[in-house]
TrEMBL record:
Pfam families attached to this UniProt entry: 2-Hacid_dh, 2-Hacid_dh_C
Superkingdom classification of source: Bacteria
PROSITE patterns: D_2_HYDROXYACID_DH_3 (PS00671)
PANTHER family in the record: 2-HACID_DH_C DOMAIN-CONTAINING PROTEIN (PTHR43333), D-ISOMER SPECIFIC 2-HYDROXYACID DEHYDROGENASE NAD-BINDING DOMAIN-CONTAINING PROTEIN (PTHR43333:SF1)
Residues of the D-isomer specific 2-hydroxyacid dehydrogenase catalytic domain: 18-302
Keyword NADP annotated: no
Gene3D superfamilies in the cross-refs: NAD(P)-binding Rossmann-like Domain
Record lineage: Bacteria, Bacillati, Bacillota, Bacilli, Bacillales
Keywords for this protein: NAD, Oxidoreductase
Protein name: D-2-hydroxyacid dehydrogenase
Presence of the UniProt keyword Nuclease in the record: no
Length: 314
């Protein structure tokens, strides 16, 4: 069996993998080669480097392991037509992303951006507008692995959590659950609104102008899912008119964000360039999911963990 990685793990991660599976011919490259695709039985990729043309070369590939949670940039129909099994690393982002979200929330609550600016100006001032996180309420759109982890951390700080998903069914570390249909009614109760929703047809522009009008004027809005959640003009209006107090944005409709985009200049916005999931342990955690799946695959089992339905987008 030939397994083609379109990225090269660090030696301390790559070498144990090769030793553990001596029956496998591993190929590691930084980039995608159609020549290698023609020979591969399994493809390991971040997903963004694949297109329809590539799939035409991948005539032997039966399984694509995506070392990412997002699959919206993959050539879904071409993969579906070929009947290729696709799985991903859903769940590995929960630690770095939850820590990133909590860090931003605490920074805003404790006025850290203001403190840093005062230091740059060599100014000793005690006029920081600081508030407490305790006894606030957070509404989390998409309380899956990531949303539940940030819910767990927030509850430890004395925050009440409201989860919101399509069904309104129970989710871990949520004090209360609502469905998408009940979202507008729940928003006035939230001090913090966090989205970690994936990109699907249903989530595209799910948040509309009326949703932002329903939020508290001092609410912190955080989008760490996908930029399709809200139309850019709607979000900009909500920020500029004070319908919300603060926005922390890790994702955008168009990425990378243009250098001349006006959102860079807004004082009540934190721009995080889609890095909240980054961690020195990212590939390590990806391989921890890949290895047991590979053991299954070598035994002829196709019920790999985190198997995806590309027709649904997740």
């Amino acid at each position: 069996m030939r397994i083609y990685f379109t990225f090269e793990p660090r030696p301390d991660l790559r070498e144990p993998l090769v030793e553990e599976f001596p029956q496998v011919d591993f190929v590691f490259e930084n980039g995608l080669s159609n020549n290698e695709l023609q020979e591969a039985d399994v493809l390991v990729t971040y997903g963004e480097d694949l297109n329809d043309e590539n799939i035409q070369y991948a005539t032997k590939v039966k399984w694509i392991f995506v070392a990412s949670a997002g699959i919206e940039k993959m050539p879904a129909q071409a993969i579906i037509d070929r009947g290729i099994v696709v799985s991903n690393v859903r769940g590995i982002h929960k630690t770095p992303m939850a820590e990133s979200m909590l860090a931003h929330i605490l920074a805003i609550k404790r006025a850290l951006p203001w403190v840093y600016e005062q230091q740059k100006k060599n100014e000793w001032s005690k006029k920081a507008k600081q508030t407490e996180l305790r006894d606030s309420t957070a509404l989390i759109l998409g309380p899956g692995a990531i949303g539940s982890e940030v819910g767990r951390l927030l509850q430890a700080f004395g925050v009440a959590t409201i989860g919101c998903n399509r069904s309104g069914n129970e989710a871990a570390y949520m004090n209360e659950m609502v469905s998408f249909d009940q979202l507008a009614e729940a928003l006035p109760n939230a001090d913090i609104v966090i989205s970690v929703l994936p990109k699907t047809e249903e989530t595209t522009h799910l948040l509309k102008a009326d949703h932002f009008k329903a939020m508290k004027n001092d609410a912190i809005f955080m989008n760490f899912g996908r930029g399709n959640l809200v139309e850019e003009t709607v979000l900009m209006h909500a920020i500029r008119t004070g319908e919300i107090g603060y926005a922390v944005l890790d994702v955008f409709e168009q990425e990378p964000l243009a250098a001349d985009h006006p959102i860079w200049t807004l004082s009540n916005v934190i721009v995080s360039p889609h890095i909240s999931s980054h961690s020195s342990r990212y590939v390590e955690r990806s391989l921890a999911i890949f290895k047991p799946n590979l053991e299954k695959w070598l035994r002829g089992e196709t019920d790999v963990e985190n198997r995806l339905d590309l027709s649904r987008g997740y």
